[in-house]
Amino acid sequence: MDFKFIWEAVIILFFGFCLLRITGKKTIGEMTGLEIITLLAMASVIGHAVAEDGLWETAITLSVFVALLLAVQYLSIKFDWVERWFMGKATVVIQNGKIVEANLKKLRLSVDQLEAKLRENGISSFRDLKTATIEISGQLGYEWAKHAQPVTLGDLEKLFASLHSVQPPKQQKQEENLFNEVMQHKHQHRIPPELE
């Protein structure tokens, strides 16, 4: 009996592991649909390779899967339409404390499921949120409404300054709001060339 298939199986498994390391570290919940499909296809090819296909055919097939995934990931950084098409975009589900029902229907997400996501994040009321999104990973992104925002050190410094008639320290320029990008379907600022 020829035990060559054992070594081929070990090589294919190691090769698949190396390719998965190249694709990046993400949990299943953070993966896009394309990444999950690539992972499942790789698992299927590895499983069949041990029984049927040759070593080199399997290695080439796995390499093609990973190359296509990396190409799409690279192009999605360069072009917004590629990212939208293959990876998806965040979807607004709460705006100004009110549920955006049309977007819930598009996501096939019930109000009960949305409420569960809110509770998981310690949010007890829709009205406490200015904006909430379902990210491409399925996670909830949210921005507190003004009345529900936690007090910051800067807020306390302003309060103490007003109580003691002292000039408050200069504030740093306010950061851009990431939720505006989701609402306007475009980046607020030009992306630096080194990130493209």
Q: What would you say this structure looks like, in words?
A:
The structure is a single chain. The protein has 196 residues and is α+β, with helices and mostly antiparallel strands. It folds into two domains: 4-85; 90-167, CRO Repressor, CATH 3.30.240. Helices cover 54% and strands 9% of the residues. It contains eight helices and four strands. It has helices at residues 4-23, 33-51, 55-78, 80-87, 101-107, 111-120, 153-163, 178-184, and strands spanning 91-95, 98-99, 129-134, 140-144. The chain has a four-stranded antiparallel sheet with strand order 2-1-3-4. α1 runs antiparallel to α2, α1 runs parallel beside α3 and α2 (33-51) packs antiparallel against α3. The radius of gyration is 24 Å and the shape is elongated. This is DUF421 domain-containing protein. Keywords: Cell membrane, Membrane, Transmembrane, Transmembrane helix. Belongs to the UPF0702 family. It is a multi-pass membrane protein. The chain crosses the membrane at residues 6-24, 31-50, 56-77.
Question: Nutshell version of this structure?
Answer:
By secondary structure, this protein is an alpha+beta fold. It has helices spanning 4-23, 33-51, 55-78, 80-87, 101-107, 111-120, 153-163, 178-184, and strands at 91-95, 98-99, 129-134, 140-144. A 4-stranded antiparallel sheet has the order 2-1-3-4.
Furnish the topology, listing elements before pairings:
Blueprint lengths: L3 H20 L9 H19 L3 H24 L1 H8 L3 E5 L2 E2 L1 H7 L3 H10 L8 E6 L5 E5 L8 H11 L14 H7 L12
Antiparallel strand pairs: 1-2, 1-3, 3-4
Subcellular location: Cell membrane
InterPro entries: DUF421, UPF0702_alpha/beta_dom_sf
Family: Belongs to the UPF0702 family.
